[in-house]
Structure formats: structure tokens, C-alpha cells
Amino acid sequence: MSELTLRKRIALEAAALMSRNILKEHPLRQLFWECTLRCNVNCRHCGSDCRKLSEVKDMPREDFFHVLDSIAGRADPHRVFVTITGGEPLLRDDLEVCGKEIFERGFPWGMVTNGLILTPERFESLRKAGMHSITVSMDGLEENHNWMRRHPQSFQMVDQVLDLFVQHPQIASDVVTCVNQRNYEQLPAIRDYLISKGIGYWRIYSIFPVGRAANDPVMQISNEQYRGMLDFIRKTRQEGRIHVSYGCEGFLGRYEGEVRELFFNCQAGVTVGSVMADGSIAACASIRADYHQGNIYEDDFMEVWENRYMPYRNREWMRKGECKDCRYWRYCQGNGMHLRDGNGNLILCHLKRIQEPSLTVK
Ligand code: SF4
Ligand code: SF4
After folding, report:
1. Ligand 1, residues 226, 251, 252, 355: which to mutate, most atoms within 8 A of Cβ?
2. For a substitution probing ligand 2, which of 270, 271, 284 has the most ligand atoms within 8 Å of its CB?
3. How many independent structural domains does the chain possess?
4. 0.85 cut: is pTM over it?
5. Domain with 264 in it: what CATH number?
6. Amino acid 49: pLDDT
7. Which long-range contacts link 324-329 to residues 24+ away (Cβ below 8 Å)?
8. Beta carbon of 328 within 6 Å of any ligand 1 atom
């Protein structure tokens, strides 16, 4: 374990112990609702099944409310945060009605948007419907962002959304950026731009090699760049001018505890659940359908939450291939569930990316 200092190992041990206790309880804390598959842009890195005019109809809101009622029967709704995703949630005309109902049932809620049609009026109506948090995507400065989103006005709209964020500090807001070959060198400029706008929270992701992004060399950064990105996050956090963190995936060895709030621990199916657009009961929106646990049109959500999800709560089955003899297993447990293919094999080990900078992603 030479990679880790004694101090870090002690902290990781404490975190591992805590996560074992949480596993026993598996309290639902975050519920994603994929409220539509319709989308108004066609992003290059999108791994979802969204289409401009999706053949999958939006889920009727009452069907989702049944899920909430099932949860409220067994858990405290105030402790379950509902995050509305898509597709693009703003394409639903009844989004405010949905938000208000969610709020009135006692659940705090927030949403993730591309910001393209988020006007000040819409923001205000969502605020009145009880919105607690909002996340917008920004994948570079103007040229790169519009290229990624394939839309010439996308950056301009995000810029206006950032102003709304600053005008409404009572609503938790953040910006997410997917790092790729085009925006990697631009990270300091993006940081400075966000700071100049008054933005306080920024999350950075790398794009995992699945779906169309897997075969696009522009979407994938090299291992050396990956380390450079983590160094950038660490340095920016130390500077303290903006609160930046890396996404939830991957055990990061010596970077653990320095690039995000918590130590790595995939919470999918442990504290995080999802309801997908077709009613599938999932754990986290990034995970393959092979790992869905039921469907709200056949199953009671909380019955499923309490009695299924075994592959998520006992991950010994993932201890194979390169994870089999890994000395970091106790801290990593085989990486995030979204990085398992249909046969349960590991798609990517983040630690290897850090340790072997000359390797490229497969
Ligand atoms: S080999 Fe597996 S358990 Fe070890 S760090 Fe990589 S993903 Fe995690
Ligand atoms: S499956 Fe992946 S994205 Fe989802 S919670 Fe786990 S690490 Fe995060």
C-alpha cells in the first residue's frame, strides 16, 4: 500500500467501516427520476437513449407519485432527495406540477438540465414549485460547448442560466463539465470564467468508454491527461476560489480524499435508486439495463428496494479478472457499477489510469 500515506489509510479504513454499516441499513437517500427521454439537443457524449422525439412516452406523473407514496410508507420523505433527469426535463410542460406534488409529499427535489430553454420565468415557476437544487452542463467555453452540444446558442443560454444561479443563492446550484480532448487544455479558462460569473460549485467528469463515446478519440483523454485533470482539481481546491470536485466514480489511490468530499464508495443500490422512463427500477442512471431490479408497472418500489438489489449490496461477484487479487479491493470493491459490462466484467480501472500514465483507455 505504498501508494497511500498512513494517515490516508486510516481514513480509508474508517470510511470502509462506515460504508459496511450503511450497507446493512441501505437507507434510500437519493432517487433519480428519468421523467422523459425527449431531448432538445444531440450531445456528442450522450450515453443515454434520448432522441429528439423519443418513441418512449413520458411517464405519466401519477405513476411516479405512486412510487413516492410507496417510499413515504416506509421512509421519511424529507430524507430522500428526488433528482429529476432526462432527456431534458424542461420539455415536460407539467414539470412544475410534478415538482409541486413531489414537494407537497415532503420530498426535497432538484433537476439536471442542459439549460437551453431555461428562461428567468421558467426558473421562477420552478422555484415556486419548491425546487431545491439545479445542475447545468457546461462542456467548455463557447466554441467547445456549442460543438459538444451541436447547438449554436447553447453556450449563450447556459451563460444566462449561470446568472440565474447567482441571483438565487437559496437554491443549491452547480455546473458539470465532461472533460474531453477539446476542453482539457481549457480547464483553467473554464474555472476562471465560472469564478468571474460568481459560480460557487463545479463538478468535473471524465467520459467513460461506453456507447458511442467509447469509439470517439476526441471524447477520451489519455491517462496522462487524466492525472493532469486530477492534479488540476486538487490544486483548484487548495486555492479555494471555487468549490470543484471530481465525479463519484473510481478509486483514485493517492488522490482519494483530495479531489472530492468523500472517499470512493459506489452508492448505487445502497443509498441511490432510480426510476427510468420506461418504469424500470434501477440504481443509478448510468448503469446498464442488465442490472435493473424490477419495474414500477409490475412491482412495488419499496418492496424491490428492501428485498432485491443483491448484486449491489454484496459485490463479491465483482471480485474477478483484474479485481481478483487487487490489494485495494477493500476500498474500491470493483469500481462503480456503471463500469461493469453485461457479463459483469470490469470496463475500466481508474487506479490503473493513475498508475500507468502511458496506457490509453481501451
Ligand atoms: S482492480 Fe478492481 S478493485 Fe482494484 S482498483 Fe481497479 S477496479 Fe478497483
Ligand atoms: S454506478 Fe457509477 S455513477 Fe452510479 S453511483 Fe456508482 S460510481 Fe457513481
Report:
1. 251
2. 284
3. 1
4. yes
5. 3.20.20.70
6. 47
7. 327/1, 328/1, 328/251, 328/253
8. yes
